[in-house]
Amino acid sequence: MKKQLIIAASLISIALATSSTQAAEPLEFQNVMKNLGKHMQIITEGISREDWELVAKTAPMIAEHPQPPLAEKTRIISFMGAEMSSFKALDMQTHEAAHDLMHAAHEKDGQKVTAAFQKVQSSCLSCHQTFRIKFVEHFYGKPVN
Question: Cβ(92)–Cβ(39) under 8 Å?
């Protein structure tokens, strides 16, 4: 019995140490989000200059953004639980809207471009408003301002 308590206490200590270490380490997912933000800024610049080639070239970088490594993805899925389907649905909306944006830019149709970009922005915002606070607090252990 005493041995089991020692083992249980050790496992709890390791788990707590691991979770605090993980909270301090930035996820690769954070880099994915930062790069998506940069691509959104490039597209905004392209739209303002009516540089449809730049918009068409950048939109796929949003639509086909990299995924985090498998171990990290597993941690995210585990954390998200039942909300994972909503998270994936918003991600899919973003992918589809970015593809629409790329096609509109190829057509050099400014109205379609801005409408598609608005859909990209809306899907990003919906995801951030739904998940960002919980995600940052869980993985980084700090409140979002």
Answer: no
Q: pLDDT of 49-99, one tens digit each?
A: 999 999 999 999 999 999 999 999 999 999 999 999 999 999 999 999 999
143 φ/ψ sector (left φ>0, alpha ψ -120 to 50, else beta)? beta
pLDDT tens, position by position, 14-40: 444 444 444 457 789 989 999 999 999
- Give the C-alpha distances (Å, rounded to integers) separating 76 from 14, 55, 56, 90, 141: 20, 30, 31, 15, 15
